[in-house]
């Protein structure tokens, strides 16, 4: 399953074998788990609706 999630849900989804598009503004966290081949990360503030919607279309 391909998932788009924010925050720490990413780690759990990757451990379950999902392909994950992570989106976060990274104010309070990090992306140290980003080496996982099933993970793509975009630094996006979800309050910027147009940018977030474009990312989800891709």
Describe the fold and architecture.
The protein is α/β, with parallel strands linked by helices. It has one domain. 28% of the residues lie in helices and 26% in strands. It is built from two helices and three strands, in the order βαββα. The chain has helices at 9-15, 49-57; strands at residues 2-5, 19-24, 39-43. A three-stranded parallel sheet has the order 1-2-3, with helices on both faces. Strand 1, helix 1 (9-15) and strand 2 form a beta-alpha-beta unit. The longest helix is centred in the last third of the chain and has 9 residues, at 49-57. The radius of gyration is 11 Å and the shape is globular. The chain starts with a strand and ends with a helix. The model has no long low-confidence stretch (mean pLDDT 80).
Beta strand count: 3
Principal-axis shape equals globular
Could you describe the largest sheet, including whether it forms a barrel? 3 strands, parallel
Structural class by helix and strand composition:
alpha/beta
> How many domains, as an integer?
1
Strand content: 25-35%
Helix content: 25-40%
Total number of helices: 2
How do the strands of the widest beta sheet line up side by side? 1-2-3
State the end-to-end CA separation.
15 Å
Helix/strand order = EHEEH
Mean pLDDT, as a whole number?
80
């Amino acid at each position: 399953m391909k998932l788009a999630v924010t925050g720490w849900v990413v780690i759990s989804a990757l451990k379950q074998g999902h392909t994950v598009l992570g989106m976060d503004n990274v104010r309070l966290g990090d992306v140290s788990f980003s080496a996982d081949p099933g993970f793509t990360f975009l630094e996006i503030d979800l309050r910027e609706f147009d940018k977030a919607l474009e990312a989800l279309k891709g």
